[in-house]
Every structure is written in structure tokens, then in C-alpha cells.
Design goal:
By secondary structure, the chain is α+β, with helices and mostly antiparallel strands. The chain has a domain of 41 residues. 23% of the residues lie in helices and 17% in strands. It is built from two helices and two strands, in the order βαβα. Strands 1-2 form a two-stranded parallel ribbon. The chain is flat and about 40 Å long.
Length: 60
């Protein structure tokens, strides 16, 4: 999720994109199928491997 209404979704998953739109969400189509051969998807392609700054909670 990018915010309360927008999220990143695989561009080639047309049915999912339409479903998300029907649910009132705004999918942002993105090409990430190239991560599938290495066993990943959005999390693997966007996961922080290195962070700068101090540890903070995003759930407060």
C-alpha cells in the first residue's frame, strides 16, 4: 500500500486490477514479473536491505 487508497499491483494481473478498482482502490500497475524466477514478488523487489537513520515504529 502506498496510502489508504493506492497500492502497487502487477500490471499483467488484469483481473486483480479490476477487482481492486471495484473495491474503491487505485492500483498502480507495475512490471515486476522479472522477480518471479528468483522466487520473489513485490516484497523481494522492494525490501529494504539497508536503512539509514534511527529505528522507528510505523505502528504508533
Amino acid at each position: 500500500m502506498v496510502d489508504e487508497k493506492r497500492l502497487i499491483a502487477e500490471r499483467h494481473h488484469i483481473g486483480m486490477l479490476h477487482t481492486l478498482e471495484r473495491w474503491g482502490l487505485g492500483p498502480i500497475p507495475c512490471d515486476l514479473l522479472h522477480t518471479a524466477p528468483i522466487g520473489g514478488s513485490f516484497l523481494c523487489a522492494t525490501f529494504d536491505t539497508r536503512r539509514h537513520g534511527t529505528l522507528q515504529s510505523y505502528f504508533e
